[in-house]
Structure formats: structure tokens, C-alpha cells
Amino acid sequence: MADNVIEHDDDLLDNDILDLEAFNQLLSMDDEGDDDHGFSKDIVDNYFEQARVTFADMDKAFVAKDLTKLSSLGHFLKGSSATIGVKKVQECCKRIQYLGKLMNADGVGQLALDKGLKSPLDKDSKPTASRDARSSSDNKTMASSEKVADTAPREMQDLVSQRALNLIAAELKMGKEEYKKAEEFLRFFYEADMDDDDDDDDDDGEDPADDDKD
């Protein structure tokens, strides 16, 4: 196994981008002496492809208002991001996973209506004028109440689902932004590491001009 790991050096890495422990575990899987980090680089490249495809699929699911699909895709990309150590994308995807199940973003409890939204029951909760008036329209009121009872749960569900989609939209935007930062850093890390190896090879090699000096 390779010994190359990233140290906790602020000049080398903005720790907001990667979970160093997870990324170092990935680097430790490279073969010993593999200064190009071939194994881990392949995994990271595959992650890039997975992330791009998954975000595109999330966009399609969002347009279709498919919360179940969004939850499933969030769960998938959460796991892939955790393997690499892309922690902020992992966190966004975790919240999308929960929101897609109509749970709160932290996974605790069911998502509720926003305080600014009214329940469908509110429009039918008007006080009646008098007891006599109520008596004269008992049958009509009963029929109306039964209709509300049938439609209110569905309307409530629609409102909660829309709130979940609104919250997911914000998480998707943030997740894409954080992914872009992580991709830029990881590409820089592997390219810079390979450039350093090339410089070392040049230093170790003999200068052909030295032979002419003898």
C-alpha cells in the first residue's frame, strides 16, 4: 500500500472540501510505490462520471416531481461521495434522501407544512351564524364535511410534497456547487502530484551533456 497521504496542512487543502480521513483511506489503497496513485485516481474519475450522471438524473426527477426517485438518487450519490470524502456533497445528498421521503432534512420526524401555508381545512372552518341556521342545513353541511374529509389529506400531501421539492431545489443547487469545487481540487491534486513525480524523475536522470565533459 502507498504511504502517500494528505497531511492536515491548511496551505495544502481547504478542509471544507474533503473529509481528510476518508480521502487518506482511499489513497492508502494505492499500490506501494505507485506515485501516480493509479488505483485511487481511477476511483475518483469514476466518481466524477457518476456524479455528473446522477445530478442529471436528479434534474429529470425534479421536473417530474418524482420524490421517490430523488430520494433514491440522493442515497446513491451520498454513498459515492462518502467513499471519496466529498463531504459537503454527501451532506446535501443525505438531506435530499430524507426530503424525498417527506422527512425533515435531518431525518428526524415527518416534514410538515410551512407555517405560511394554510391547511385545506382552513377554508371550511368558518363559524356558523346560529344554532337554528346549523339545524336548517344539517344535511348540506354533513355532505360538505365528508367531501372535505376526502380531499383534505390529498391536498395536504400535495402541499407537503411541494415544500419538499422547494427544499430539494436548494439542496441540488448547493450540491452542484460543492461538487464543482471538489472536482476542481481533486483534479488539481492528482495533476500536481504527477507533475512532482516527473520533476523527481528528471532530477534522478543523468544529463547526457555530462558524458561529454569526461
From TrEMBL:
What is one GO cellular-component annotation here? cytoplasm
List each copy of the HPt domain by range.
36-131
Q: Which GO terms describe its molecular function?
A: histidine phosphotransfer kinase activity; protein histidine kinase binding
> Which keywords appear in this protein's UniProt record, sorted alphabetically?
Phosphoprotein
User: According to the UniProt record, where is the region Disordered?
Assistant: 117-155, 192-214
- Pfam families documented for this protein: Hpt
Please identify the protein, giving its name as recorded. Answer: Phosphorelay intermediate protein
Which organism is this entry from?
Coemansia interrupta
Upper classification of the source organism reads: Eukaryota, Fungi, Fungi incertae sedis, Zoopagomycota, Kickxellomycotina
